[in-house]
Amino acid sequence: MPNKQHARVNKPRRERAEATPDATAKTDTSTDFIIGRHPVEAALQSDQQINKVFIQEGLRADAIKEIEALAKDRHLIISQVPKQKLDLMTDGQNHQGVVLAIPPFAYATVDDLFARAEKANEAPFFLILDSIEDPHNLGSILRTADAAGVHGIIIPKRRAVGLTSVVAKTSTGAIEHVPVARVTNLVATAKELKDRGLWIFGTDMNGTDYRQWNAAGPTALVIGNEGKGISALLKKTVDEMLTIPMVGHVQSLNASVAASLLIYAGFNSRHPL
Question: Where is the composition biased (Basic residues) (predicted)?
Answer without folding.
Answer: 1-14
